[in-house]
Write a structure and sequence with these properties.
- There is one protein chain.
- The chain is of the alpha+beta class and about 325 residues long.
- It is about 50% helix and about 20% strand.
- α8 crosses α9 and α12 packs across α13.
- Mean pLDDT is about 90; it is low at about 325-330.
């Protein structure tokens, strides 16, 4: 990313309390997006959200809904995020130097848990798409490779025997939108396609080294090249499916095991481990799809309610109106 753009994106951090992790995500990163009115989206990881919000209320009280501040301040803000939402508090429509920002604050423990285990599949889904990391004190960028491998395995289970690189990235991208209630009325119907095509080079940078690992293990093959992108194929037999399922996050495997059954075996270290019984690739893929859809549906609903309470009526209406306008344009 150009140095000038990175400096511009980091400008928000100058007015906030220190954070452990910060990344920018969303349409602001699209290389062909020259719209300065686009709201820039951030995820901020902090060790103690209540303490962080206490500091930020002193520094930037106007970023918060006045009712939340009046009724309970940092404690209520954190409780609403944790007990009603998925652990993330968003402040949208924050104006700095003529630009509009939205930032979500999450506990580092919750961020790591979601990246590794897809506990809510909320932030992990965002980190499966291109992001620009600005602060990374705990090396989340490296840890995220586990999240990306899980996304590849899930996508491969849902793809046919032959597919293009773009189709693979589109399937990865769509995982965190399956069951998302916003997709019914408040999101662009072509969102996945626009994300992948708009940031195709960034997807390649993220995933190509991992795809080569999968190819080395015989889980996929690079069959040819179609111009800028590869055409790939995979064995849709049981043996490969039985190799893909164990690379899914543990919480997903556990939920699949409740439906498909589990078996135990000894690992090389002598530890007893549980494995999902995969008797049919199609059944395993459909079971995984339902597990992810349920996770996304619950998380998106909880976060929608949490955000409605946290940002206040006017901001919520404005944000929803912007989303619905984009959705309407995509349908007409």
């Amino acid at each position: 990313m150009e140095k000038e753009k990175k400096v511009r994106l980091a400008s928000l951090l100058k007015i906030l309390p220190p954070v452990e992790f910060c990344c920018v995500y969303g349409s602001a990163l699209h290389p062909n997006n020259y719209d300065k009115s686009t709201m820039v989206d951030y995820i901020l990881g902090v060790s103690d959200p209540m303490q962080w919000h206490s500091q930020n209320l002193i520094m930037n009280g106007h970023h918060y809904a006045s009712l939340m501040v009046y009724l309970g301040g940092a404690k209520l803000i954190t409780q609403v995020a944790d007990e009603i939402g998925v652990g993330v508090h968003f402040n949208p429509f924050v104006s700095v130097n003529g630009e509009m920002f939205k930032y979500g604050v999450v506990r580092m423990h919750d961020l790591i848990e979601d990246v590794l285990n897809w506990k809510t599949f909320y932030l992990s889904g965002r980190l499966q798409k291109p992001v620009q990391i600005l602060v990374d004190n705990l090396d989340i960028g490296n840890l995220n490779s586990i999240n990306l491998k899980g996304a590849i395995s899930a996508a491969l289970l849902l793809l046919p025997a032959k597919f293009t690189e773009e189709q693979l990235y589109a399937k990865v991208c769509s995982l965190s939108y399956m069951g998302d209630l916003r997709m019914l009325f408040a999101e662009d119907r072509n969102k996945v396609k626009k994300i992948v095509q708009g940031q195709f080079d960034a997807f390649q940078t993220m995933y190509k080294p991992l795809l080569e690992e999968y190819a080395a293990k015989g889980l996929l093959q690079f069959s040819s090249s179609d111009g800028h992108q590869a055409v790939m194929s995979q064995d849709c037999g049981l043996s490969v499916a039985r190799s893909l399922v164990p690379s899914l996050p543990s919480k997903v495997q556990s939920q699949m095991g409740m439906k498909l059954g589990e078996k135990t075996k000894l690992s090389e270290s002598g530890r007893v481990i549980r494995e999902v019984v995969v008797g049919s690739r199609d059944k395993a893929a459909e079971c995984m799809r339902r597990v992810l859809r349920q996770k996304v549906m619950v998380s998106s609903a909880k976060q929608a309610v949490s955000s409605l309470l946290a940002v206040g009526g006017i901001n919520a209406v404005n944000y929803l109106a912007n989303k619905m306008e984009k959705a309407w344009k995509s349908w007409t």
